Amino acid sequence: MKKMKNLFKIIYFLIVVMTMGGCDDFLTVVPQDSLVAENYYTSESNVRANTASLYGSVWWDFHTQFMWLAGDELAGDIYYTYDAEGQFYYNQVGAGNKFNNTGWEGLYRVVSFSNSIINDMPSSARLNGVSEDVIQKALGEARFMRAVAYYYIAENWGEAPIIENATELITSGNVADIYVNKHTQSNLYRFMCEDLEFAASILPNTDEEGRVTKWSALGMLAKVYITRGAYEANGDYFTLAKEYARQVIEESNLALYDNFSSMFDVEANNSSESLFSIQCMVGSYGDGNARNVNWSRGSRIADQTWGAGKGPTISLQELFNEQPNDARRKWTYMTHGDYYENLDKANGGYTYQFSYRDPDDLDTQVESTNGMLAHIKKYVIGKSADTGGQVGTNQDAGNNIYILRLSDVYFLYAEATMGLGESTSDATAIGNINKVLDTQGAGYNVSAPLSFLDLIKERRKEFAFEGNSWYDIKRYYYRDNTAAIEYLNSMKRDQLYQFDFNTNNLDGLSTADKYVLENDRNSYVIGWETTDTGEWDGERVNNIVFNSSSMYISLPAEVTTKAPILLEGAVDYYSE
């Protein structure tokens, strides 16, 4: 029991030692360090209360910014150029980037919480007569979460330490043991698969509380095995991934969510589309979804707003423009003329205009254009008054954040069918993608043969702003380094939409007429062109170039300064 008590005193060991962050803000998460395990895991409800902590605020440091900065902005889907966040757009994320550090800390925080359950809960729960079924399900949840955290760690930083039991490290009597070598990326994939295979074997088919299930684990296994297969050029892993995806699609009885316009609102929380979502609620700082604040354009549609300068990139917009009837576009990003009845309800809804001026004072500009002439809609749900109180003032909207959607598994089936090949004509694979497109109102279908690049582009539209795109590009890179880098360098990141002030004579026009002209896309906008408006460290940025060194983020300096062993080469975690 002594080691068990010690564990709760050092439950946040990984954050303190491996990420060198403070732990005071973590101590509000059950179990608190004042509790000892044998007095806490006394019932099924206590065990489930503990595993519930794995679904919410433990993910905050990851999802509040790093998730979309890496997953969407680095991937070329979100335009934003300010300060440390802008470094992701400019492909200049260094070891000193603060969001690089909080992303690493946040993911290892999830690992730490998962490990505390995996290593401490079983013996104390058994001591208190908790059923083995409850214990095993809790282990399945914790190992699922640990695997997901390591998936993001591997794809962003490549080589990283695998930590299974911090207690053994801290109680070994050797201070040097707390500093752990990095392990190889292949080892990380193997470790994830072992965790997910265990979770798939033990988790239930359903859970009314929105917790992960067998299908969640199988869907994540499909994604990890596809990634592992691409990284290691091993076709057998694609075969496994295809079978796991098939089981989810054909045996789960889960249905695709059929209303893309509300899929990212509170009403869709824990629908059958959600295989794993971070559970969000209005409450304290860290409890909710911060995207409503981070991405909202202005005060007309949000109680708090930081999103005026953010928008969908030119390349993402051009991709959507290839299919102008795609209903998903309007609910992915807003551009001129789009109307949303669920925003600004007090004023009859919200119509997006390039520029909006106070009707009673046209010299006062309330909303102005950004360089993309568009703003993000996905996950933006409005004000508290628009949502029945589902938006707070602590960056805490109540709409959940998807980590794995059912639609993703339909796409993964096609990717697994393709294997290491350049395309697929498999009717089931094509049919699965078209089922998603039909359900979501895309207004078109794909046809055979479907190339890998076409698949990536289809995924880009379906999962834009969900933190997926960078990891799709990484799989492309594993398959074909050169092609993936060419794809990244084709995204026109150094360009903005420009306006035709010269052709349109503004002299002599009334303020009201100028306001009309500001919102006349046909006469006002002349398309994009190279711009030198970007600045970084006093130097002009006209050319944002990716190469092989761009495909992994540097380990955070705060980590390597305290644990220089992480600068050494990776070692094998497995002895065989």
Automatic annotation (TrEMBL):
An example Gene Ontology CC term for this record: cell outer membrane
RagB/SusD domain ranges (all copies): 278-487
Keyword annotations: Cell outer membrane, Membrane, Signal
A Pfam family matched in the record: SusD-like_3
Subcellular location: Cell outer membrane
Signal sequence segment: none
Family according to the record: Belongs to the SusD family.
Protein name: RagB/SusD family nutrient uptake outer membrane protein
Organism of derivation: Labilibaculum filiforme
